[in-house]
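Hi all, posting the design record for the shared folder.

TITLE: backbone redesign
STEP: 1 of 1
STRUCTURE INPUT:
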């Protein structure tokens, strides 16, 4: 004989309420963060450089990049055709970060990269590094390293993210970290 008490049903209702409440708070938090970035743009105050680096890294690793014709497969384009890039990003269309886009980033002129990301307008410089944790090797170190500008930079921010690195072959796919150093 299966007998349920009112206490058991009450506990179930409390657990359901807490789960729903947690989801609502999570969604509200994400919405407010996205809304704040869209309203305020990237923070550019000197004391917020780490926050700016974090937002920049999120933008680069979550965007696939786009050509003027709407294509997101810019990693297969070379030479003058790269001038038709409308936005830049290293995200894979399936999941994670694209190994091929990381490698192809070296074909993009650094000044063009800064223009596409909006960094050049505010006088920012960036160094982006993607490191394969499984192979223990650097995939790409792109941009201008701040050590060369030690006397001229006025502020610096750092962000690091661990991401899924998609080689396009499930036997090779692994985790990697993405380092972003932003400075002025």
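Okay, here is what came back for every position:
SEQUENCE:
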């Amino acid at each position: 004989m299966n007998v349920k008490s009112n206490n058991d049903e009450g506990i179930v209702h409390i657990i359901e309420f807490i789960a729903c409440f947690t989801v609502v708070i999570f969604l509200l938090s994400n919405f407010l963060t996205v809304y704040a970035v869209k309203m305020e743009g990237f923070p550019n105050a000197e004391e917020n450089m780490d926050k700016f680096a974090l937002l920049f890294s999120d933008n680069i690793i979550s965007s696939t990049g786009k050509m003027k014709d709407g294509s997101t497969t810019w990693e297969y384009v070379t030479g003058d055709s790269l001038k038709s890039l409308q936005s830049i990003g290293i995200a894979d269309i399936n999941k994670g970060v694209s190994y091929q886009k990381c490698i192809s980033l070296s074909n993009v002129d650094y000044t063009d990269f800064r223009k596409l990301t909006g960094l050049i307008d505010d006088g920012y410089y960036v160094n982006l590094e993607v490191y394969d944790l499984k192979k223990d090797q650097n995939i790409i170190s792109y941009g201008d390293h701040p050590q060369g500008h030690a006397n001229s930079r006025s502020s610096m921010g750092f962000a690091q993210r661990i991401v899924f690195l998609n080689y396009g072959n499930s036997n090779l796919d692994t985790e990697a970290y993405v380092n972003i150093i932003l400075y002025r």
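COMMENT: Residues 1-41 form one domain.
Let me know if anyone wants the other runs.
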